[in-house]
Amino acid sequence: MIYLDNAATTKPAQDVLDTFVKVNQDLYFNPNSPHQAGLQAEQLLQQAKVQIDRILGLENRYDIIFTSGATESNNMALKGAAYNRKPFADEIIVSVIEHPSVLEVMRHLEEEGFKLKYVNVTTEGKIDLEHLKSLMSSNVGLVTCMQVNNITGQEQPIAEIAQLLKDYPKAHFHVDAVQAIGKVPLTFNRVDSMSFSGHKFNGLKGQGLLLARNIHNLEPVIHGGGQEYGLRSGTVNLPIDIAIVKALKQAVQQRDALNSRLRQYNNDLRAFLQTFRGVKINSPVNSAPHILNVGFDGVKGEVLVNAFSKQNVMLSTTSACSSKRGHLNEVLLSMGVPESQIEGSIRISMGALTSEADIEGFKAAFEKVYEEMKELLKS
Ligand code: PLP
């Protein structure tokens, strides 16, 4: 099988799985228990946080909260910050290119009375900084932006947004870094919170992180026994939390080498695909290298995904989350991609385990699929 759907999820690394099993076997204790074994578990939990701080170079600027994934981290940060600021700053700025785990939180907050403002996106799929500037005021309590878009791979100007927010101290700045970690450098300056999902970087599903600069600025959305600074009540899942550190360390250590390897594959694929009539690359040239969105004018994305699947190549239409919903992709729409090209778009996404042989295998499969479809394609 040629697996090119790494933006949806990745294969867990063997040592991450081994760590998960070993901690389950040897240290299954509750870190909140007062006995010796519980204390040992608590120590390990705290050591894991110190390690994460070092791996990411956080220099103690953030509290680290273990979560079940980025959906939970995004909910926790966005609702937590919005509720905290509601009495004095109830406006929120977001764009339509965010992941549903952000956009649906926003829609929920709007129903609760928050005022949402949508910032424009350029034809390159980037946040329009001038428009953002014009939307800012002292009533804005929350601004959220992903670092790398999960549909196109486009990188957002996080440092520039952070710089702009310097003049608005009431505004909490949240960054969804799910598709950025392990692929491109992260920006922490003036970022108040950041989300990650372990399974996107060869960790396990159900494993995530939230970094928060000031936990007192977040209202808890999960109530109970008060674990994780009172932000995430519930018995701590030590095996899953220790295992994510392993995955994170590898992802960060291998980042630059992986980035340049995937850049080569990306360039290679672009050069190859450009030679086919009716095939258009939707991902801007300077996007993160692991995601390549390609449009076929005249054939539906689902038909293409099935045709590739028959050739043993696994890829997706837009994103796994929205590909079953059957509506036009907002990210591509906001970039001005023609509707017929959006309907026929597929996402090729690579990861740490993608090899040159996979790329060559994809090309061979592509030629077969293209042969079947070419009569239907508009030029
Ligand atoms: N944010 C982005 C940019 C994503 O790509 C995803 C998953 O596809 C998420 C958030 C949600 O992650 P999870 O499904 O692991 O909670």
Q: Can you put this structure into words, describing what you see?
A:
It comes from Staphylococcus piscifermentans. This is Aminotransferase. There is one protein chain. By secondary structure, this protein is of the alpha/beta class. It folds into two domains: 2-7 and 255-376, Aspartate Aminotransferase, domain 1; 14-250, Aspartate Aminotransferase, domain 2, CATH 3.40.640. It is 40% helix and 14% strand. The mean pLDDT is 95. Pyridoxal-5'-phosphate binds at residues 69-71, 99, 101, 146, 150, 176, 178-179, 197, 199, 319, 321.
Q: How many domains, as an integer? A: 2
Characterize the largest beta sheet: strand count, sense, and whether it forms a barrel: 7 strands, mixed
The CATH architecture term of the largest domain is: 3-Layer(aba) Sandwich
Can you list the ligands bound to this structure? pyridoxal-5'-phosphate
Please provide the count of β strands. 12
Q: In short, what is this structure?
A:
By secondary structure, the chain is an alpha/beta fold. The chain has helices spanning 14-26, 36-56, 70-85, 100-111, 129-135, 158-165, 238-253, 255-273, 301-310, 330-334, 339-343, 356-373, and strands at residues 2-3, 63-67, 91-94, 115-118, 140-146, 172-176, 193-197, 208-212, 279-281, 291-296, 313-314, 345-349.
